Amino acid sequence: MSNQTKRFFLSEEEIPHYWYNIQADMKNKPMPPLNPATKQPLSPEDLFPIFAQELSRQELNQTDSWIEIPDEVRDMYKYYRSTPLVRAYGLERALGTPAHIYFKNESVSPVGSHKLNSALAQAYYCKREGITNITTETGAGQWGAALAYAAKVFGLEAAVYQVKISYEQKPYRRSIMQTFGAQVTASPSMSTRAGKDILTVHPNYQGSLGTAISEAIELAINTPNCRYTLGSVLSHVALHQTIIGLEAEKQMAMTGEYPDVIIACFGGGSNFGGIAFPFMRHTLLDGKKTRYVAAEPASCPKLTRGKFMYDFGDEAGYTPLLPMFTLGHNFAPANIHAGGLRYHGAGVIVSQLLKDGYMEATDIQQLESFEAGCLFAQAEGIIPAPESCHAIAATINEANKCKETGEEKVILFNLSGHGLIDMTSYDKFLAGDLVNYQLSDEEIARNLSEAE
Amino acid sequence: MSNQTKRFFLSEEEIPHYWYNIQADMKNKPMPPLNPATKQPLSPEDLFPIFAQELSRQELNQTDSWIEIPDEVRDMYKYYRSTPLVRAYGLERALGTPAHIYFKNESVSPVGSHKLNSALAQAYYCKREGITNITTETGAGQWGAALAYAAKVFGLEAAVYQVKISYEQKPYRRSIMQTFGAQVTASPSMSTRAGKDILTVHPNYQGSLGTAISEAIELAINTPNCRYTLGSVLSHVALHQTIIGLEAEKQMAMTGEYPDVIIACFGGGSNFGGIAFPFMRHTLLDGKKTRYVAAEPASCPKLTRGKFMYDFGDEAGYTPLLPMFTLGHNFAPANIHAGGLRYHGAGVIVSQLLKDGYMEATDIQQLESFEAGCLFAQAEGIIPAPESCHAIAATINEANKCKETGEEKVILFNLSGHGLIDMTSYDKFLAGDLVNYQLSDEEIARNLSEAE
């Protein structure tokens, strides 16, 4: 293997100049978001009070396949992109599989995950429109860290509401955001009406993403020149993440192979869409036979066991109604360590694609995900984020099938981030303190009927 | 700046095939290590019980300028090398300096620092010589993490003695080592005579690098097929680290510039030697005028305020006597957060070069180092290791001088590692809880006279 290339890079000129907007090429477009009061479809203008105008337009753009990446954003991409496409020889050896395994290594971003790809874009558009302050929520803090740095790059002030239990239990990511100059507030807080309403009733409430979203939106709406930003679920976030798959497509060409299966972990869909959509356009337009597999946690199985329906994007019900695979907006996922995958719904694009049979989903138990992560760490030297461990587990399952059948399938997965800030989770896994979570059909059905 | 290249990479073929052994080109060679009992110079054979034979020979090799990198090691380098050479446009802008600042980004290694460059080499040679187990000590854990992964790569068992206070206070790095499959023991421990001797007298002793070294060496000597490994100070470690400077030399050529000043932080000298020695050969052989600046912590100033003399490499006095700049092997450095720089002495090559005026040293206070680190993080998006912050602070000082004089100097520094595992240190800095340490001339003199 000495003379074989392990990592494939693009030159700065080869970094894509356009993001790919898969909505334009879908036969069945995602259905529109609805105003929950009037049940009328929303226009971009309806979103302007919350999001930057250009992001609102991108969110609902179903006609342009290619959106130009602004020079200022592409210029910042050059600091860490192209990210390497890596042939996982070590993992192949460890598994004894005939499969050829590749991964796109988004963990090399300075903040350690793919989240920066969209954070830079969102901060840039806000800046261009004269916005001075941006807000967001974060759980474990991957997205918050990316947004904090992106805000600094474009000279914006960032206010991040971090779920209180993470704020206290994961001080590392809070410190990262603060080192980048962001204002970080534990949510619920006394700085918003939404926060006060909760704290006056439950003074010791540990917070949730839903509450943090409400606080961030409220601050954005009530502050001049301030807008809200989000790190996943939305279509414009997946759009920005297609830089991953567009690079991977060129890099796979350098290997002389083409993926039979493309795998990514799944929370709201941004890293999955990011790597899958550019390849999927060949399936949509030319009938190319490729499998696209979303790996979700068994404790939060909206794709494998949820229902396709209009539902709210947040727990409190402040967002528009979105057509999505969901477990119900009131679904309270178990406290698994892959915090980035603990979300009740799927983005509208992925939901439509799954409904139409263009992709598939698989669920992974927590223990299986960490076993896969440890195997990968020892084989490839990179400790993966707990979220990414789900993609690795699904990859291992595919590779083991190849071992049985003897097929030399080409598998590509997205390593969305590293786990160096998540070592307490590995610690607990190694100590035998983690468990799997079983979710009964009754629980799912009950929750969905409450949400409807 | 849109059309300017920010990061420079080498192809896999361009990754160097040889390490550079500066000892061969030095007019005044380092004086030999001495047996402390007989005061006789040591031969490689004297080191065989402790180190792999090839490493023992490399340690004392003063004749061969180039040592071939084994295919198996170079093959593993390809997984993360070449590391990028980055033009720090963001930092230049933040400082308003006319200087051109470049940094070699060793933080992209899977374990987050340059340490892996030597860990892979040491593990490989041990494997080749039939050794099955390797031991080492680690403080904060950068070296231990690198060695744990390298051992796994080459199928060796690794036993790491981690200073007890770090083992308890920095569980993240312990978990990283364990995830890579290493056996990690808090030192002092009951597993060695050295540990037992201390614990029976001081049951609550928090440990020191010196004690951990003693335990690791004792285990190596008393275990069949087991050898000891070290992450800095020694000449063969600096040899392996020259891969950094050899790559940087090729990458600087791609920029069309040549460094006027080369800067690295300084603990035992491995990352400094790694980036500086390949450039310094042009100074030694062709009289090229380049400044080489070692940035050490003001609380552990062996280069700026220590004495050149024969001294022990460890606190307990078990190692050979080494000709080094030292503060005395019994020197107890203040508990600064740049744990990797808390060492009383300098490697023998750097010591001789400093004595002969080929390089210079500067000392940096703790607060200045973290201020520099935060500025760099906000300007370049990478949170640097507390150790690397010293190199950044020295770089900023040089760049600010250029601002005064208007000189367009080219400055190259080594970013030895990222700080994502060190966020508690940043946390304390941001909270105003860190202090500077003043060291009086009397203290230094007293300590040196005790050591002599």
Give the helix/strand layout:
Two copies of one chain form a homodimer.
Chain A: E1 7-8, E2 18-20, H1 44-47, H2 53-60, E3 66-68, H3 71-77, E4 85-87, H4 89-95, E5 100-105, H5 116-128, E6 133-138, H6 142-153, E7 157-163, H7 164-169, H8 171-179, E8 183-187, H9 193-201, H10 209-222, E9 226-228, H11 235-255, E10 261-265, H12 270-286, E11 291-297, H13 302-305, E12 307-312, E13 321-326, H14 348-355, E14 360-364, H15 366-380, H16 386-405, E15 410-415, H17 423-430, H18 441-451
Parallel strand pairs in A: 5-15, 6-7, 6-9, 7-8, 10-11, 10-15, 11-14
Antiparallel strand pairs in A: 1-4, 2-3, 4-5, 12-13
Helix pairs in contact in A: 2-11, 3-5, 4-15, 5-6, 6-8, 11-12, 15-16
| Spatial order of strands in the largest sheet of chain A | 1-4-5-15-10-11-14
Determine and state the CATH class of the domain at 7-14 and 70-112 and 236-451 in chain A: Alpha Beta
| Chain pair with largest interface | A-B, 46 and 47 residues
* Chain-averaged pLDDT of chain A: 94
Distance between the termini of chain A: 56 Å
Architecture of the domain at 7-14 and 70-112 and 236-451 in chain A, according to CATH?
Answer: 3-Layer(aba) Sandwich
> What fold name stands as the CATH topology of the domain at 7-14 and 70-112 and 236-451 in chain A?
Rossmann fold
Please state roughly what percent of the residues of chain A sit in beta strands, choosing from under 5%, 5-15%, 15-25%, 25-35%, 35-45% or over 45%: 15-25%
- Counting H and I runs of at least 4 residues, what is the number of helices of chain A? 18
Rounded to an integer in angstroms, the radius of gyration calculated over CA atoms of chain A is 21 Å
Subunit organisation of the chains = homodimer
As a percent range, the share of helical residues of chain A equals 40-55%
Briefly note the structural class of the backbone of chain A.
Answer: alpha/beta
Shape of chain A: globular
How does the major sheet of chain A shape up? Answer: 7 strands, mixed
Q: How many strand segments of chain A?
A: 15
Low-confidence stretches of chain A: none
